Amino acid sequence: MLIKGTRTVALLMLGLATTTQTYASLLFNGANSVAVLDGSYLDGGTHANYTFDLWIRPNALGGTLIGKTEYWQEWTLDMTANGGLMFRGAWPYNYWGTEVGQGSLEVGSWQNIACAVDNGQASFYVNGSLVGVEAVQDPISFRADASIGMSPSYGVNGVMMIGYTDSGTTPDYNFFNGAIYGIRVWDRTLSAGEVNSLATSGVIPTSGLVNAVMLDENTGSTIHDELTALTGRNLTAQWTSDMPLIPEPHAVSLMGIALVGWYARNRANPIPS
272, exposed or middle or buried, with CB in 10 Å at 0-12, 13-18, 19+? Predict the structure, then answer.
């Protein structure tokens, strides 16, 4: 049964398991809203193969979605002012990143964004469709310390940012204006088919999935990772009950018979059980 404000999923597999999730996302105002993680995605090491996935609802085009600030090792996943995407950064002592997929993103609607990187080649997807490929730094560092503020000093390990960026050298915050939901990170490169299924059918690949920072707490200042002990803080953004309508596959197995039900999240119109 889906009801406004919560989602309840019942699975019958030699017993009944029920989980409840709040409908929420994190809203950034494009001026001073920020959130940070007190640690890092993946294992905090250096990686050449990885995938980012998240949902966004922009109120304006442009701004950093997620990223890491560290002197000459920063990187960010950005939405551009032309409605495109860019994975950019600086390392070692060179800037890298090229805009792709101009016109792929729009204001006012939820869109799924994925960036799958394979040894220096980043493939960008919007709603499961490939919109561009660019060469990026290979590898990148995921090293990060507990958050120390918006502008760490020289020599300090990176800080993982949500909704803004900071190179650590100048105030270049590049604030995002809109809502963000469901940041997931894999330690491998998802295939085009996996990204498409993720965005259009709600099928989440579990192999290599390390982090799931859902941004659905809807209260308080603490941000949680559903898969690890990683936490973060909502510093100045606002919780909102708005979130994407994501198809969800649920399988019920009984005596060898598999029944698959597809449910779309609908906050306004409860679906009777």
Answer: exposed
